[in-house]
Amino acid sequence: MDKICIEGGRPLKGTVRISGAKNAVLPALAATLLTGGKNEITNIPRVRDVLTLVKLLEDLGCKTESFEGDRIVLDSAQIHNHKAPYDLVKTMRASCLVLGPLLARLGKAEVSLPGGCAIGARPIDLHIKGLRALGAELRIEGGYIKGRADKLKGARFCFDSTTVTGTMNVMMAAVLADGETILENVAREPEVTFLADVLNRCGAKIEGGGTDTLVIQGVSSLKPIHCAIFPDRIEAATYMVAAAITGGDVEVTHCLPQHLEPVLLKMKEAGVELTEGDHSVRVRRSGSLQPTNIITQPYPGFATDIQAQFMALMTLAEGQSVITETVFENRFLHAAELKRMGANILLDGHTAIVTGVKKLSGAPVMATDLRASASLVLAGLAAEGETVISRVYHIDRGYETMEDKMSRLGAAIRRVRA
Ligand SMILES: CC(=O)N[C@H]1[C@@H](OP(=O)(O)OP(=O)(O)OC[C@H]2O[C@@H](n3ccc(=O)[nH]c3=O)[C@H](O)[C@@H]2O)O[C@H](CO)[C@@H](O)[C@@H]1O
Ligand SMILES: C=C(OP(=O)(O)O)C(=O)O
């Protein structure tokens, strides 16, 4: 298994270009199952999850006509298989996004219960409830969700709590259902709104993207997708923290600051200097870091996917920060690894009390999930001495060429291949 080695203590300087959003491209790829032609998606990040989902779509019958650079042309005219097998689904949460489209397009689906980051139980009961409301018959058998739907019918459904991929799954099924569907208490993340826009440009009739209620008029077919993926807000936030934690000066370009408001606010509170452009943020820090408290929330709150990176930053603040994780019940696995580097973190249920220390020291640490891994890279960049991070396949799931981007900013970081 590959490792990443970092010699810390160098302030990062320069410009970094943000890639397309992993959590936006995955639903857009799954949505190609709903159309019956040549779909074209650009600004795709070359990350492991994308490659895995493309493989899964090919297994279902899609044909990759070309996948060069950041552009894919995927023909979904012939879908001959309705089974998403364990081997392809186990590593990635987003693979469950084929369930709604398969039911809508083929009237049947067998999808292995999804994997993804081990940050909580992550049930998919709300996906199932929503699809059942549209008339699908679903059961869990042998580790698979098995479903049939002769014809999906529009319905009114209220999610018990908000779910990002759950909203996407039910929305994708509803666009080809008979009649009107009203989905209440839906997720408002930009990735959900983007998916609704992409589908609308294919002929779907979805109103309410970005609000907590979606009203969907079913249509009989969709034209192929042509879309460009918007910038990854989590990657952007990660590089902003990299600049801040190393006391550097970095221009983060090709990003959308409006997707990052709570993070920008907290960085300012922490004493980081920010200069915002329309599609960029310059991040500088010369003074000390101040402690700040954060509470993760669904969008537009502070994203849980940035909690681990922010915790790394707060380990070096002058004082005590309280970090509360409300979205996932087990998303503090990075705390134990940060402590190996000298951080002072006390966990109490959903809360982490982080008391800033003067310095972190390089250490061997283990990546446990995607954003936890990013937080260890960030801590390693700031630490004295060498940090060796193992199990970095987690990073490869969601960050495009992270070592190259960090190296270009002046980090002493290298991958040791197994
Ligand atoms: C591929 C992708 O886009 N992943 C993102 C997506 O994950 P994902 O879509 O899995 O996250 P959800 O929004 O569904 O999860 C939110 C909470 O709802 C719970 N829940 C969810 C579904 C369900 O049927 N029942 C249930 O109880 C989950 O366990 C969790 O506690 O949104 C998360 C929250 O912003 C992000 O951290 C992930 O990066
Ligand atoms: C948790 C994440 O991914 P997944 O939902 O695929 O596990 C993430 O992107 O931070």
Strand order of the largest sheet: 22-23-1-24
Low-pLDDT segments: none
CATH architecture of the largest domain: Alpha-beta prism
User: Briefly, what CATH class of the largest domain?
Assistant: Alpha Beta
CATH topology of the largest domain: UDP-n-acetylglucosamine1-carboxyvinyl-transferase, Chain
Radius of gyration based on Cα positions: 21 Å
What compounds sit in this structure? uridine-diphosphate-N-acetylglucosamine, phosphoenolpyruvate
How many domain modules? 2
CATH superfamily of the largest domain: Enolpyruvate transferase domain
What separation lies between the terminal Cα atoms?
A: 5 Å
GO biological process, one term: cell division
Keywords: Cell cycle, Cell division, Cell shape, Cell wall biogenesis/degradation, Cytoplasm, Peptidoglycan synthesis, Pyruvate, Transferase
Binding site for phosphoenolpyruvate: 22-23
GO cellular component, one term: cytoplasm
Could you provide a short overview of the structure?
The chain has 418 residues and is of the alpha/beta class. The chain is built from 14 helices and 24 strands. The protein folds into 2 domains: 3-19 and 231-416, UDP-n-acetylglucosamine1-carboxyvinyl-transferase, Chain (Alpha-beta prism); 22-228, Alpha-beta prism (UDP-n-acetylglucosamine1-carboxyvinyl-transferase, Chain).
